[in-house]
Amino acid sequence: MGFLTFNVTDIISSLFKMGASISEGQLITLKWRLSPEGQKFYSQEQTNQFYEALRKGDTSVIDIVRKEKLEIIEKLEQELLLS
Amino acid sequence: MKTLIHFFLLAFIITNLGNAGDKGIFGPSKPKPGKPVAVVEQVLNATEKSYQILKEIDIKTDKGNVKFTKGFYVVSQDYISQNDENQNKLISILQTAVDLKKQNSDLKITTYTCGALCLILLIFNIILLKRRTGI
């Protein structure tokens, strides 16, 4: 549970310790996902699952967030288009 | 007579409060009801400077289309999907536009509520006046 309170640096350090590495693009996405702005688009349960996956060294969840961001963009655009 | 004066006074206050809200007297200026909200077809530029320009731009509404009043920048969907930072910026801009749209819609509701309240008060006062005068 303590992992949930880690900041981005701690998470990255943990990933490195586990032998996982992330690209610059993934880092940007990870920062966004953990920021208050990014958290707005996810439920607490989804965030917990995200942390849990990272805790296990699964960095593929960051790529999933990247795809989800495109869906969010699409959704927001649609929301604006609706009269 | 007193009731009638009270009514007009109340109607005057409510109407002016509504107008004041529209003009931003009691806070930041809000988009006028009936005008707007627009679409973001083109949005973003890769540079931080242009992003700042975008952020400073007032978003105005026009029949379901969100428009940026000062210049805009076009970046293809592919470019956005390939650039993580631009995705974040785009989300932020779109979210701002959505919030503005919602604010606009809330303002409409407030205006209509005030109108309805005035109408109810008017009817109520007419009834009261009729009863008192017996006309």
Write a structural description.
The complex is a heterodimer of chains A (83) and B (135). With 83 residues, chain A is mainly α. Chain A has one domain (2-81). In chain A, 71% of the residues lie in helices and 0% in strands. Chain A has five helices and no strands. Chain A has helices at 8-17, 24-34, 36-39, 44-55, 60-81. The longest helix of chain A has 22 residues, at 60-81. The relative contact order of chain A is 0.13. The model of chain A has no long low-confidence stretch (mean pLDDT 83). Chain B has a two-stranded antiparallel ribbon with strand order 1-2. The longest helix of chain B has 50 residues, at 84-133. Chain B contains four helices and two strands. The radius of gyration of chain B is 23 Å and the shape is rod-shaped. In chain B, helix 1 (2-23) runs antiparallel to helix 4. By secondary structure, chain B is mainly alpha-helical. Chain B has one domain. Chain B starts with a helix and ends with a helix. In chain B, 17% of the residues are buried. At the A-B interface, helix 2 and helix 5 of A face helix 4 of B.
Which sequence of strands runs across the widest sheet of chain B? 1-2
Largest interface: A-B, 19 and 21 residues
Helical stretch tally of chain B: 4
Strand content of chain B: 5-15%
Please, what is the oligomeric state? Answer: heterodimer
Count of the domains of chain B: 1
Please report which band the strand proportion of chain A falls in: under 5%, 5-15%, 15-25%, 25-35%, 35-45% or over 45%.
under 5%
How far is the first residue's CA from the last residue's CA of chain B? Answer: 14 Å
Poorly predicted regions of chain A are: none
Which properties best describe this structure?
heterodimer; A: 83 residues; B: 135 residues; two-stranded antiparallel ribbon; 4 helices; 2 strands; 64% helix; rod-shaped
What secondary-structure arrangement, pairings included, does this model have?
The complex is a heterodimer of chains A (83) and B (135).
Chain A: H1 8-17, H2 24-34, H3 36-39, H4 44-55, H5 60-81
Helix pairs in contact in A: 2-5
Chain B: H1 2-23, H2 48-56, E1 59-62, E2 65-68, H3 77-82, H4 84-133
Antiparallel strand pairs in B: 1-2
